[in-house]
Design goal:
The chain is an alpha/beta fold. The protein has one domain. The chain contains 13 helices and 13 strands.
Amino acid sequence: MEAQQHSDQNETNHPEKGVDRRKFIRYSAGAGVGLIALAASGKRLSRVFENPAAQATGATPSTLESSRVAIARSDNLFSHGNGPEKERLKKMLDAAMESVLGIEDSGQQWRTLFSADDIVGIKVNCIAGPQLSSHPNVVDAIVSKLQAISIPAENIIIWDRKGRELTNAGYTLNTDGPGVRCYGTDEVGYERNASTKATFNGCLSKILTERITALINVPILKTHGGAGVSLAMKNHYGSFNNPGRHHGNMCDPYIADLNSLDELKDKTRLIVCDATRGLYNGGPGHNAAFTWQYSGLVVSKDPVALDTVCTGIIDDRRAEAGLPSLKEAGKYPRQLASAAERGVGNTEKSKIAVATLAV
């Protein structure tokens, strides 16, 4: 059912040593390139940003700080035959977080972004069913890191649009019992007064506006027949009440205007894209013919930079499969440029530092 793994795999790092932070700083400041590879071999995992112009332009340290993207992958992620392996996912997450934040200690990584008093929402994507939803094992790895910094289980909410979609994707609903909460917006409803910004006009989930203080966005690596891709920014089409009215013109600039809302920008602390499996054509529904096992996590604090990098990963896979690029197919995500114009994040190659990690 799964297609073969991406062929441009890095050699294996020594996970117990983590990421060499000094190497990251040295490469960032000296090379000035859009794609920075940190695997032991130095081999590039993806051709996302091989751009001579970006190399000539370089990038400032402040830009790199705000737009670092880490791609962590493992050859052994599915070795147990029961979904992505939880302990391996934790190691991948540790390595990616160290790369993005420049902090080696796992606890300090998460304390930099979250306090013990936060109520953290984890926005997953379950519309495509169990074969192409944010995997519960990925979310479990994130939850374990939050609990390790003393955030109570009851102050963690895994959520999406509908409870039945969460259940179908393998989650156990819990509205008010002990332990991690898990429920859909259909349990609590949407805010009464619509949020508006330019082309966006919709009522946001009360989970987002009233119940949480911080947000972790956990999208899937996949294409979308209307928007080109469904990644971090498109994942919030499950955060408001009327997404059907925001699909015109390939969802542009609707996605950009939605993600420029203060309610989203101010609460989003981290994006962890579930790239354990991916969809490189069609979507948003699952299609076994175009699903492949990428065995990765893609992590950033910048949703636009992450979506830009993941679009490149998808284009790499499309090339391997003999398909035209998204741009050649008339499906390149227009929301990337619109979101950058609105200050949501970076899409310019010279302003994004990408670390590729084999764990």
